[in-house]
Amino acid sequence: MTKRIALTGNEAMALVMKQINPDVVAAYPITPQTEIVQIFSQFVADGEIDTEFVTVESEHSAMSAVIGASAAGARAMTATSANGLALMWEVVYIAASCRLPIVMAVVNRALSGPINIHCDHSDAMGMRDSGWIQLFGENAQEAYDNALMAVRIAEHKDVMLPVAVNMDGFIISHAVENIEIVANEDVRDFVGEYNPERYLLDVQNPITVGPVDLQDFYFEHKRQQVEAMKKAKNVIQKIADEFVNLTGRKYSFFEEYYLDDAEIALVAMGSAAGTAKAAIDELREQGIKVGLLKLRVFRPFPAEEIVRALSHIKVVGVMDRAESFNTMGGPLFSDMRSAMYDGEANVRMINIIYGLGGRDITVTDIKNIIQKVKDVNNTGKIENLVIHYGVRE
Amino acid sequence: MATLKELSTRAGKFSGGHRLCPGCGAGIIVRQVLAAAKNPVVVACATGCLEVSSTIYPYTAWNTSFIHNAFENAAATISGVEAAYRSLKRRKKFGLEDQEFDFIAFGGDGGTYDIGFQSLSGAMERGHKILYICYDNGAYMNTGIQRSSATPMGANTTTSPAGKKIPGKTQFKKELTDVMAAHYIPYVAQAAPSNWKDLTRKVEKALSIDGPSFINVLSVCPRGWRTPEEKGLEITRTAIDTCFWPLFEVENGTDYTINYKPKNKRPIEEWLKPQGRFKHLFKPENKHLIEKIQKHIDNRWEMLLRRAGEID
Ligand SMILES: Cc1ncc(C[n+]2csc(CCOP(=O)(O)OP(=O)(O)O)c2C)c(N)n1
Ligand code: SF4
Where is the Thiamine pyrophosphate enzyme TPP-binding domain positioned along the sequence (chain B) (predicted)? Predict the structure, then answer.
């Protein structure tokens, strides 16, 4: 049983959290995530849900408390944005290294400074190397669906890693959409019960979590985290396959939009992928062979699959909603070029950095961007490897 | 109150074989605190000497469940554990319906007075049923004896060194016990392992209360204090007898009780003298500093007596 209702991204996230009914939620307000905390606390106040809701005094404590709760044996969730995520940074790493299956909604917002409340992916990129699985959604529906799948992915015995469910601030978090809601009992069945093998509250088997780990073991433990990331790929696919039976909505590492016969393509994550689809629809009508790879799973990075999907493309424009300041492009571009380097095909790539601090990106903009990719294809020359699109120079 | 025999049967929750320095107060405090806990315990520990000495992977000195998260978040971490417990108990998971626990966090003065202060304050204000124990050795010992806001005035530390111009730490220590009392939580106390009966009684009391509690415990550090290993508890006692470290408790923010009144309050020199970190204070040009410290101690002691209703 599913039903369609109009919800904002934040409402959808709060709703799915209510349906998942975690044992513990600890969270701290920050725009544009705030509503999730507010809506969730109303659910608790109205007795619609009996999750233990811990109203911490900072994001650092939110993540710390969620780590404590998860280590204790609870299913634990939190949500944040931008500076909140940055304040968590230290403990975000610890969550992953303790192999705690925490799920966190990240409502993407530009990191300070200067302070800015609007969308980009600099916050998500700040946690890029922390050992979390990172999913990106194009819209509220995908954010909702990703959150449901995230619980299963995180808690899978082969994985046991925390998962960040990203959705673009304001563009998704505050826009109203008609989304399909999974019935409560189906959510319950889908996520099941969390039964950890080891937990602090196991009276018979006390454990030590977070010990000192020096030269003799630290490296091995990092290696194990990498192995878990590798295994996560199978698990992510397997759970997506189960999810399609539940909802009819099909997910994988990425979505291929008109890629089959495309000559040129874009790669994008988050809401811009939707805008790109609209632009591609128009250009396809004009006979331009352009496609899109919309990346859903950013960590683990599905390199092999990406190479396969793009090997026939001549020029790819990789869209980054964050800077890396390496002066060679954004974080996604680095990964993309690295992935393609060993590919058989000679795929050329340029990087488009766009939308920082919430700078609008329209269908027309995407068409302009595609034109730049097309120019490289026509001339065979890359004049600008990295384009900061839409910035006043 | 538990008898010594009862306490000794419960003393195995923190085993020997940890790598704290000989004579370190932290290990003694942990053993006394855990012995006073009747239920299974979950410990959260801040980064610092205690944590790095007791959990070197693949070993652990803890026979209780233990979590170390980071330096400044022991209080937030144990809040999360306690929240999980309440939730899982309510949801009848893992057979926790009839299972009681004691949730105890340990932090050094650095991880408590300074970097962990926000997390501690937040946890106390939220009212979790947790006991936070600060083992106050008066400096960041683990990173090599740097000053903290708990470092006593005049102490020579590696970041408040006694030099030609500046005679060690120039500020008085933060009185965190008072600050915690100002949270109006059910129970706050100051204790020392030299007075084990007082300490274990306070732990029992703290754990029996339905709410947050905080106990500040003076913890000798032979390395940082520059004192002989075997003299730790004796020196701790002079801290109490000079009123450098009064033993008192505060219930619900206002109800102060002095637990020990020295018959003859000893001069502060007796606390300072045996410790290498205060050596320079005994140079003639620093005499005024000892006087200043004495005056501060006297004022504070008087203030405590007044709060406890012992004088008008
Ligand atoms: C965020 C952060 N800053 C600094 C450190 C380095 N550090 C580890 S332990 C420590 C000092 C601990 O001092 P204290 O809390 O007084 O405990 P003690 O070592 O004296 O037992 C410091 C500064 C750290 N681990 N994390
Ligand atoms: S340095 Fe001090 S606090 Fe640290 S273990 Fe040694 S005696 Fe204990």
Answer: 47-217
- On whether residue A66 sits in a domain, the answer given is yes
Query: pLDDT of B126-172, one tens digit each?
Result: 999 999 999 999 999 999 999 999 999 999 999 999 999 999 999 99
Interval A201-235: pLDDT, tens: 999 999 999 999 999 999 999 999 999 999 999 99
Tens of pLDDT, residue by residue over A83-129, are: 999 999 999 999 999 999 999 999 999 999 999 999 999 999 999 99
Full residue range of the structural domain in which residue A18 is found: 3-247
Nearest-Cα residue of chain B relative to residue A89: B70
Is domain B11-308 classified as CATH 3.40.50.970? Answer: yes
Helix (H, G, I), strand (E, B), or coil: what is residue A121? coil
Domain-located, residue A393:
no
B37 touches chain A (CB under 8 A): no
Contact flag B67-A68 (C-beta cutoff 8 Å): yes
Instruction: Indicate if A191 and A277 belong to the same structural domain.
Output: no
Contacts A214 to B, Cβ<8 Å: 56-57
**CATH assignment at residue A258:** 3.40.50.920
From the CA of B26, the nearest ligand is 2
- Chosen domain end from A247, A276, A308: A247
Break chain B into its structural domains and give their ranges: 11-308
Write the CATH number for A114.
Answer: 3.40.50.970
The residue in chain B having the minimum alpha-carbon distance to the alpha carbon of residue A206 is: B65
Task: State the distance from the centre of ligand 2 to the C-alpha of B152, rounded, in angstroms.
Answer: 17
- Read off φ and ψ for residue B3, nearest 5 degrees: -80, 165
Residue with CA closest to ligand 1 atom 25: B71
Count of the separate structural domains present in chain A: 2
Based on the domain organization, do A242 and A273 belong to the same domain? Answer: no
Q: Is the ipTM of this complex over 0.85?
A: yes
Q: Do A203 and B81 touch (CB under 8 A)?
A: no
